[in-house]
Structure formats: C-alpha cells, structure tokens
Amino acid sequence: MKSTVYVVGLMTSVATFLVACSGDYDSAKRKRFFGPGAGGEYTTVDVEAASTAQDGMFALAGEAVQTMTLKVSCDGIAEDVVPPDDEIELPVGARNCKAKLVSIKLGEKTYVEPAAGLGFSHYLKNDVAKFANQADAKDVIYVKVKEQLPSPLTANPSVKYVYSAVTQFDTVDADNAAIDATSKTLGVAAPQVKVSKAFIGPHGGLNVHIECTATGGFQGTLRDNLKCGGVDVKTMKFGVALKEETASLKDTDLAKIKTNFTSSFAGDTFEYISTSKIMKLNFGVPKERKTHILVASITNGTSTSYAYGFIRLGGSRVLDLGECAAQGAQANFVQNSVNANDRGKWQDTSNCWVWQRVVTEKVKSADRFKQCPAIKEGEQVQHRTLPYFTEMKAARDRNIHVLAKGAAPALGANIDQETFWLAGGRVFNMKDGSVRSVKDIKPNEIHHVLCVTKRD
User: Fold this and answer.
1) In whole angstroms, what is the distance from residue 103 CA to residue 119 CA?
2) Percent of the chain scored above 90 by pLDDT?
3) Cα of 452 vs its chain's centroid, Å
4) Which of 29-38, 243-252, 257-266, 300-309 ranks highest by mean pLDDT?
C-alpha cells in the first residue's frame, strides 16, 4: 500500500537579538521639548528595552535595566540629552524626531556607545550598534533599534531597543522532496496524513504542519478527541531522523526510526488549529542540516503501518510572510487553537499576533522569561515572548481582557483583575491599564505572565 508524506516549506534558522529591560518612564520627572507641533498638543514617549531569553546563552533576561540615557531632537527642536529616569514629552505633529540611545545600565554595568566608532549610523529602525561596558571594554553588547519615533509624530509613540551578542541572521530553505514509496501494510491501514508545510522556527526547532487527507480532514477540537479517518490521533506516532534518500525503505528501517521518535503529544510539541484543521508538531533542533525523514505510524496490537517522506535542507531564501488578513467583521480577539494543556491561543485580528496564557501561576521578575517560552526539562521550545508596554496597552484597549476572559482554553477567569510582567521589567495592571516602573517594584514581588507570538 502506498502511503506518502509530502513535505514542502521553508526551513528558517534565525538568531534574534535580545532586549534589555526598561528603566523608569512613569516617574514625576518630565523632560519637555518645545518646538513646532500640531495645536500645542504634547505627548509622552514610552521608551523600553527588554531581554527575551529566547536565545539561550545570549539571554540577559534575569536583571532589569535600571536606566537609559538618550539624546532627542526633531526638526526645529535642538538636540538635548534626556537624563536617566526622565520621561520625554514632544509636540504632536513634529517631524523627523529621533531618539538616540547614549547609554544603558544593566544591573550594575553601564554600557555606552563607543566614541571611536561601531556605534549607530542613523539610529532608525534596524540600525545596529556595539556598546561597551564603561568599566571593561571587552564586555560588549550589540544594540538594535526595534522601533523609532514616527514622522510626523503621533500621540502615544514608543521607542524600542533589543540587544545581545548576536550579530547575524541566517535562513535555510526546504525543497519539495516527497518520495512515493511502498510500505507493506501489516493488518492496519497507514495514517491518512500529509505534511503541508515544514520549517525551522526562530529557535532552530523543526516544525511541521500536518493535514488529514481523509474526507473532512481532522475531526475534533482537542488532542484527546482529535480523529483522522476514524482513528484517534493520540494513538499515532510521529518522528524525524537523519536519513539519506533511497529508492525505497523497509519496514525495519521505519520501525527503527519509530523507536527514536522525538515527538509525543506533551507540552508545546503539539498544537491543533481548528479553524484550518492543521496539526503542528515541533521536533526540536535538528542535529545536522541534512536530509531528514519524517515518519507517521499506527499500531494496532502487533500490527503497524507507516507513512513517510523526506525534508531536504538547503538554499538561503528568507521566509516570506504574507500580509495579515483584514479584520473584517471579526471580534478583536478570536481563539484560533488549543495546545496539549488545553490552553487557548488568541489571535489579535488587527496584526496576526497570538496571545497565550502559558501558566496561571505568579512568578518573580527574574523568572518571567522562563515562561515565554516555558523552558522546562523535556519540553520543546517555541517562539513566544513577553509584550512591551505599548503592546499590552494596545491589547487591553482592544478588549483582550473582555473577549478572552474565562476558564481555559480562555486566558483566565480573572484576567481583567490581574497584574502582569512586561518585557522591560515593569508591571501592567490589566484592571485599569496602568503601569508601575522598575524602581517601584520590590525584589520579591510576583505577578502573572501573558505571552505573545509576534510577527515583526
């Protein structure tokens, strides 16, 4: 019986910059820049940097940034230094405003832009600079501008920075390399599945999107009730292994791979998207960038049957993300999937971002990034991070605390009354949308975590 898995998609390995943590941007101090604007209206600029911990050894997430010093200017407004702990106020409508990061204090270390070069070239989005520790020139970080002030200046703008020791990004492509091979059926039908997409995610993990080819596709909503062609998906097994392509493979070859399956349906290795009837599996970081075989199997007693195909890595094209679909008549937030722990993922229909309540326990500041993604023994890592203040505030303004409120798979029955850590180390109060600065947070405070998967 022929049973083939078709594998096609982009394999992407990305080294991302990490972000430093916020200083105090809601203190009583205020630096106002006078100049041409629109109707005399002034707006406060939110400046934030955060460390995401999503790049392992490069993470600097445990300690919040204490202060940042910037130089700010606009057309008609002379450049001036904003001292640490000051808020920035600029006239709405001002043009070509630019915030230039001069120094950033992480814990007890102060990093500065070097006067001798390797600093920012234009300070606009995606510009990268090398900052050095004032006390140790060999201790350096790379700072990237994630978001700069818009022109003309709008109300409630933000400036965002990211940093780490990572300076390069690389991508890997996957070819369509399906092999139509015959596998002997031993008393049970082969899995009716195919892979519609395969890619390496931001953390290097091999991700596959699996569809059910039986009439009607996957049936069900959660892992425990999901079926394909009448077969419980939880009884199937999926796995990948290094394998050179051959004209055919024996059942013994497939059985050997089956003993080394890297994916069960535990934790974040599994996700099901009910709206598109796609099952997503994460097999972790491949040991080598060579051809891999993906195997699906069904066992009934002593009988086993397989479907398989190949993923061949190579090339250098960048994954081309499509435009976010128009919101239309949809609500601001809609539940688009449920993972193995029955935690819901809520898509923001304005920007395609997905919000998730990974855990409902409160954690200390130093542990906040360990939940986004949840780095635990035996658990595969997927790309999630903490939101910036402006992102969390925008989500609340669009009623995430109302539309996604409730028991799992909603984001939480009391989400509208709780406090959450922000990427920069500040604390956001979902009840009223207020924020507390780093200097006002006590060492052992605990707060909730709300994660977001972002397309930016």
Assistant:
1) 11
2) 25
3) 6
4) 29-38
Cis peptide bond N-terminal to 36, omega within 30: no
Question: What is the pLDDT, as a whole number, of residue 8?
Answer: 28
Report pLDDT digits (tens) over 29-46.
678 888 887 678 999 999
% of the chain with per-residue pLDDT over 70? 69
CA distance 188 to 55: 43
Taking alpha carbons only, the member of 276, 264, 123 closest to residue 211 is: 276
Please, what is the average pLDDT of the chain?
Answer: 74
- Convert the pLDDT of each residue in 410-450 to its tens digit: 999 999 999 999 988 889 999 999 999 888 888 899 999 99
User: With the CA atoms of 408, 409, 410 and 411 taken in that order, what torsion angle do they form, in degrees rounded to the nearest 10?
Assistant: 70
At residue 208, the pLDDT reads 78
* Chain centre to alpha carbon of residue 380: 14
Q: How do strand 128-133 and strand 136-147 relate by DSSP bridges?
A: antiparallel
Which two tokens mark 156? 């409630």
Q: How many other CB atoms are there within 10 angstroms of residue 240's CB atom?
A: 23
Q: Give the pLDDT mean for 142-163.
A: 87
